[in-house]
Amino acid sequence: MTNHIVLFEPLIPANTGNIARTAAATDSYLHLIKPLGFEVDDKHLKRAGLDYWDAVKVVYHDSLDDFLATVPDQKYLYLISKFADDTYSDRDLSATDVDHYFLFGKETTGLPEPFMRANPEKALRIPMTDKVRALNLSNTAALVVYEALRQQDFAGLERHHTYEHDKLK
After folding, report:
1. Which neighbouring-strand residues pair with 124?
2. Which end of the chain, N or C, is surrounded by fewer C-beta atoms within 10 Å?
3. How far is Cα of residue 140 from the mean position of the Cα atoms in its chain?
4. Annotated binding-site residue numbers
5. Is 155 left (phi over 0), alpha (psi -120 to 50) or beta?
C-alpha cells in the first residue's frame, strides 16, 4: 500500500517543495503532471524541500491522461477540490492493500472543470469558511495524506520521535 500525492500542473515551486517534504516524511509518491510552472532544479524548489528532495519518489507525467493510464484502480483516485460535496475525512481511506491517489489541481484554476464534472463521486473537499478562496496547496496535501495515514494507523511511519534520536544524527 502506498499513498500518492499528485499535482496537476503545479505553478509555485515553494508549494511543490513543501509537498515533496511531506511526501518524503510519509513515504508517499509525488506525481507531477506537466507542464510545470518552474524548473525542477529551481533553487526555490530545492530550498523548500531542503535536503529531502533526493528522498522523494517523484514520477513525471506528460499529461493528465498519461497519469490516469498509470492508476491501476480508479476506485482509489480522489480529486481534491473545494467544489466537492464529500469531505476528505468522511471517506474511508483505511485500506492498506491498495494504492490511494490524491489528485490536486493547479494553484490558480484547480482541476479541469470537464474532468471534475465527469467524476463527481471521486471529489473530496476540506471544510472551510467562505472568507478565503482556498487553502494553500501544500497545507491541503498534508491534511489529506495525513488523514489517509491516520485511518491506516500510520502504517510504516515512526510513532515516536525523541530529541535524543535527533542528537544522534
Report:
1. 80, 86
2. C
3. 8
4. 80, 105, 126
5. beta
Question: What residues does each domain of the chain span?
Answer: 3-167
- Stated pTM of the model: 0.90
Cell numbers given for 160: 515516536
**Of 10, 23, 77, residue with least CA distance to 49:** 23
- Cell digits for 140? 491541503
pLDDT (tens place) for every residue of the chain, 169 residues total: 799 999 999 999 889 989 999 999 999 999 999 999 987 765 665 665 556 778 899 999 999 999 999 999 999 999 999 889 999 999 999 999 999 999 999 999 999 999 999 999 999 999 999 999 889 999 999 999 999 999 999 988 877 666 665 555 5
Give the DSSP letter of residue 90.
Answer: G
Nearest partner of 126 among 105, 108, 144, 104, judged by Cα: 144
Class of domain 3-167: alpha beta
Q: Tell which residue, 81, 75, 76, 77, has the closest CA to residue 125.
A: 81
Detail the residues annotated as belonging to a binding site for S-adenosyl-L-methionine: 80, 105, 126
